[in-house]
């Protein structure tokens, strides 16, 4: 099942994503080790283990028994089990000392050889007592003239320990090179992970309901070929409910990031330019995992003390050990206390994120200060299902919830609920959207299928209201490139396109199609193109709809499309026309060929029949 779909704007993703990236804690640890080694290479950090036990006092060996005084032994004894006069070794005779005679003879020969070698060495002027040793015995002392070849791996490069300083000209570190030095780029993994200028990145919050496993799937769509595939994915700790794309990280630097809201209380921020991330780069709110180890240790100590106290009272019979104590991590101060149902990233103040939760609160977060939220709003009495920042006024946002209200709030007035503007919705709010070309308009979709719009300067009455479907509208999205184009996704498995900038003032449905991917829960437009829509739902498959070939859509919004889109539409029409002409020509040729074949076959038969009749007539005259 797909619960949320978000596009990454063109040019925001790194065309050469990294495989790994170290966290801030790991980088600090490496920096500390590096600093310690550079300042004093001989100094060792204090050991966390206790000091070794002092050595035992020396003992006078003269007081030991004779069998323990090792200084009296000239050589190691031979461990031979002797029984009687003969050895247990078959065919071996023993000498007077109980040692086999063969071993005695071998020892005598070795002693004679050593004496002869010593005598020969003494006769040579520059001899050495160790001259019998070969050169192989000194291999570790010889100069090693082998060429050093540095090894680069993905992990070393990610840790900053690769040879980037030595080889600054190399753009890739992991290309496969054959024996002749030719680059085998077709077999390299970089060819599969690097992005092309025309690629479109799509984020999908996907859950396998059968296996209860959730992931963030990063899709790549190739418009020239129509290919769609999963580029990489990220395992999530819980069922995802909302996504929001942004380009600022906790350090204040630009990049390619996504915020994910799940059934947990925290909001995870992930780096999309890392293929195999181990953990999010930041978590807003949620469980305070830094204190869970201390809490677990306290629980274990408490259980131990209780057991010890009971043991003292009843020393005859030891009580059974207590059951294991479950330790739950406390929440960060200011965190949501329930699931995060809605997210939106501010496009004006790019470090600000807004979240709506099932705890009936709305929170504003500063990405560069992830420890606590900047403001908390409590103007809803039910679960907050949708939040949206104003497209041009970065301090204003809208929120909708299960209390059947759509609200407009100025973020600078967190504690003044009287300044909140409200509009009643007939059912639970599914989603809110601002009209980017008429920013005074706010549109909301309800669970009952009604879509309505207000002028936020006077929210007492909607300016228009339409029926989006009897089964309810689960998601709405405005096209940021085409004025008045509104997309709707419904539980009845259909996706529709509406024109909200009509002369009459009331929107009308331009087209509605079956999605073929199940009941729909989400839809979104690609912000860098005019006519590309993504959607998803219960089918678990990402759906894409390129509306360039939809005549009714092109005809309705033709005057509002960009020049590049118009050119694309004209080119598509020419290709379609050429394809139709070719098809008709092929069909005509096939029909003519079949007709000629039938005529040839039929004409030959008639001619033979006429010849036969003529012969008969001639015979009759005779």
Automatic annotation (TrEMBL):
Residue stretches of each WD repeat: 333-375, 466-499
Keyword Phosphoprotein included in the entry's annotation: yes
Region of interest: Disordered: 32-60, 83-147, 164-195, 307-333, 594-622
SUPFAM superfamilies: WD40 repeat-like
Phosphoprotein as UniProt keyword: yes
Keyword annotations: Phosphoprotein, Repeat, WD repeat
Biased composition, class Pro residues, residue ranges: 45-55
Bias (Acidic residues) ranges: 99-120, 129-139, 176-192
Protein known as: WD40 repeat-like protein
Protein source organism: Triparma laevis f. longispina
